[in-house]
Each structure stands twice: as C-alpha cells, then as structure tokens.
C-alpha cells in the first residue's frame, strides 16, 4: 500500500513539474507516455516514477 502512495505522489509531481524535470532528463525515459486527446496533453510518467520511487526508497534506507 505504501508503494502505491509513493507512486501517486511521484505521478502528481511529474505532472506539476513537467517542464523542469525534462531539463534534467526525467520524463523522456522509455515507458513515459504522452497522449493528446481533445487538444489536451496527458502525461503518464511510468518509468520516471519508478526511478524516483527507487531513489526515494534508497534514501529512506540510508537515513
């Protein structure tokens, strides 16, 4: 259940900070999907969210 919460928070962060994260290379990984429906872009950063979840997990183990 905890991993689902981390994944949801990462998903929301990616949607809000999409432009900034693209500059550092996140959001362009294989597995990150962008869909245009009705003139609106929908962004699904599955791979980038998984990478961030692993990094946050490793940091929490070290602290």
Overview of this protein structure:
With 63 residues, this protein is an alpha+beta fold. It has one domain (2-62). The protein is 60% helix and 19% strand. Strands 1-2 form a two-stranded antiparallel sheet. It is elongated and about 45 Å long. The protein starts with a helix and ends with a helix.
The helix count comes to 3
**Which structural class do you get from the secondary structure elements?**
alpha+beta
Described by the principal axes of the CA atoms, the overall outline is elongated
- Biggest sheet character: 2 strands, antiparallel
Number of domains: 1
Main β-sheet, spatial strand arrangement: 1-2
Q: Kindly, what is the distance between the CA atoms of the first and last residues, rounded to a whole number of angstroms?
A: 21 Å
Order of H and E elements: HHEEH
Bin the helical content. Answer: 55-70%
**How many β-strand runs?**
2
Round the Cα radius of gyration to an integer and report it: 13 Å
Low-pLDDT windows of residues = none
Overall pLDDT confidence: 81
Q: What percentage of amino acids are in beta strands?
A: 15-25%
InterPro entries: DUF2905
Organism: Rubrivivax benzoatilyticus
Protein name: DUF2905 domain-containing protein
Keywords: Membrane, Transmembrane, Transmembrane helix
């Amino acid at each position: 259940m905890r991993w689902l919460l981390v994944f949801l928070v990462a998903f929301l962060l990616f949607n809000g900070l999409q432009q900034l994260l693209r500059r550092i290379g996140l959001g362009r990984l294989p597995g990150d999907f962008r869909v245009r429906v009705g003139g609106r872009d929908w962004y699904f950063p599955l791979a980038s969210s998984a990478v961030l979840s692993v990094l946050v997990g490793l940091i929490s183990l070290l602290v």
